[in-house]
Design goal:
alpha/beta, Spore Coat Polysaccharide Biosynthesis Protein SpsA, Chain A, two-stranded antiparallel sheet, 27% helix, 27% strand
Length: 301
């Protein structure tokens, strides 16, 4: 069972540097090492990194080679020109095509059930255990997926607005839809987002997606078809639109092609969305090490 880590994003809001490779642990660990540690502990077998060719050498030096000493690893590369036949990258585009394309890059590598995470998010131990156990119990049925449902209030930054996929969950605990909501900030009453110049309250107890999904290999077929449709519908001169994983999955739910079980987790999210987040994250990991949640060092760091 593979853990696929998306690490190709540029991270413009973080400022200079590569935020996925920013040291935050007491021995220089980066966030994704904690996810790998927790996933292996939960029962995952291999790590697949999705990165870019221009980051490959740096990635190996900072974290990849260290993780390769403790578990099998593989690499997929997300590139601007990795497009279906008949399409070309428009002039002026500089960023990758989004999380949907990132996972599509793994289609020739991943052959069994797999989980997906962002490289720069800390998810906690509970989510990986829930995810592994759900995927391990899958009888091979197509379109039966899962998603870690974090509590919105546990995923906000103290240093600025964030975008979250706010979820609708049906009476059976399945995902009914995802509303990508921009500009969510902490407030005295919980949380709110800006709409038409006004702040609209939002329930801080809502479930949100943090891009921790559990999928099966036939999902790649849907990604391939969807990517072609996405590219066909791009307007001339559009160099910013992204092919996003939550949008693909939401479309499958609405069409009845997928059922996604929401696995509620109460762990607190950490991340370095903004440069100012770094010290908060460093302090949080120091406390987790001190409390014995993690050993003194990870993977001989």
């Amino acid at each position: 069972m593979d853990l696929v880590i998306m690490a190709a994003g540029i991270g413009s809001r973080f400022g200079s540097g590569i935020k996925q490779l920013t040291p935050v642990g007491p021995s220089g660990e980066v966030i994704l090492e904690y996810s790998v540690h927790d996933a292996l502990e939960a029962g995952f077998d291999r790590v697949v990194f999705v990165t870019r060719k221009d980051l490959e050498k740096t990635f190996h030096e900072i974290v990849g080679d260290r993780i390769a000493k403790v578990c099998p690893t593989a690499y997929a590369f997300q590139e601007l020109d990795d497009l279906p036949d008949g399409f070309a990258c428009p002039e002026g585009r500089t960023k990758p095509w989004g999380t949907g394309q990132a996972i599509l890059c793994c289609r020739d590598i991943v052959k069994g059930p797999f989980a997906i995470i962002n490289a720069d998010d800390y998810y906690g131990k509970e989510a990986f255990k829930l995810m592994h156990d759900y995927l391990a119990g899958n009888d091979g049925s197509k379109g039966h997926y899962c998603m870690a449902g974090f509590i919105l209030g546990n995923t906000l930054s103290d240093n600025g607005a964030v975008t979250r996929g706010v979820c609708r969950v049906d009476e059976n605990g399945n995902l009914a839809g995802v509303n990508e909501t921009h500009g969510i900030v902490k407030t005295e009453d919980g949380a709110a987002y800006e709409k038409d110049g006004e702040m609209v309250p939002i329930d801080a107890g809502s479930h949100v997606s943090m891009n921790l999904w559990g999928l099966t290999p036939e999902f790649f077929e849907q990604l391939e078809k969807g990517f072609v449709a996405f590219l066909e519908n791009l307007k001339p001169g559009d160099v910013k639109s992204e092919y996003l994983l939550p949008t693909v999955i939401d479309g499958m739910i609405q069409s009845g092609e997928a059922a996604v079980k929401v696995l509620e987790t109460h762990d607190k999210w950490f991340g370095v969305t903004y440069a100012e987040d770094k010290q908060t994250v460093v302090d949080a990991f120091a406390a987790l090490h001190k409390d014995g949640v993690y050993p003194e060092t990870l993977f001989g760091a």
